[in-house]
Every structure is written in C-alpha cells, then in structure tokens.
Amino acid sequence: MPDSSISDNQLLKELLKLIKNEEEFSEVIENEIISYFESRGEKAAKVLKEKKLHKLILDTDTSIWEVEGKSKNYTIIEDNFCECTDFQIRVLNRGERLFCYHLLAKIIGEKLKIYDTRELTDEEYNEFLESKI
Predict the structure, then answer these.
(1) Which of 51, 94, 100, 123 could form a disulfide with 86 if both were Cys (CB 3.0 to 4.6 A apart)?
(2) Buried b (16+ CB within 10 A) or exposed e, 52-85
(3) What are the residue ranges spanned by the domains of the chain?
(4) In this predicted model, what pLDDT tens digit does every residue of 70-85 receive, in sequence order?
C-alpha cells in the first residue's frame, strides 16, 4: 500500500513502473490501481475493465480521447485535461488533485493499450467539436 502523503504524480509514477511490463488488464493490476487511488482507482479500473476508453484519431498528429462516463462521454486532451465537473472543481479550481478518474483511466489504459481506436473523417471531427460547444 502506497504512502498516503505522497502526491498523485508520485503515486502514478510508482503504479506505472509497477505495471509497465503487463500485457493485459488482470485482477492484480485492478487491485493495484485501487490500492493506489482508492475510489478514483476503482472507477478508473471499471472504465478499463468495461472497455469504455476510446481514442478518436483525426490524423497521425491529432487524436482526442473519450471516456464513457455514468451520464455522458467525457473528452480528454493529452494527459492534461478532462471536461468532467470533478476535474473542473478539484483539479483546476481547488488544486486538490492532478487528475480525475477519467484521466487516470486514460493514462493507465494508454500505457497498457486497453482502448479501442476509431479514425474520424473531417466531417465526423467537425461534428464532434460542434457537439462540445
């Protein structure tokens, strides 16, 4: 069990180092994620287990990530931003955390290659962007 006084960033680095050679999402990995990040870890593990992480590709240089949430899909940009309310309040406004569970799932899922990929046409990409306005 990790020390609760260390930062999200340190916890994530330790977790990624621990799972770096894993090739599939196992119960052991799920338990490690939960042990490191508690309720956020549990939610992130559920996203990965239920295959709710998606990489939307426009071209070789541009991709957007999406996580199916409880009430809607959430857009994630790189490892830096999620459009969910938890991210807006706890990360951006209060500075309590570095990421929400959607972003945690994206970071771990990308590392373990637990996501599906869909290439978007220009029209689909524009529709996607318009849906976010």
Answers:
(1) 100
(2) bbbbbebeeeeebbbbebeeeebbbeeeebbbbe
(3) 8-131
(4) 789 999 998 999 999 9
pLDDT bin (cut points 50, 70, 90) of residue 1 is very low
The answer to whether 112 and 22 have CB atoms below 8 angstroms apart is yes
Please give the DSSP secondary-structure letter assigned to residue 24: S
Q: For residue 55, what is the DSSP state?
A: E
The per-residue DSSP string of 65-132 comes to: EEEE-SSSEEEEETTTEE-SHHIIIIIIIS---S--HHHHHHHHHHHHT--EEEEPPHHHHHHHHHHT
Q: How far is CA 90 from the centre of its chain?
A: 16
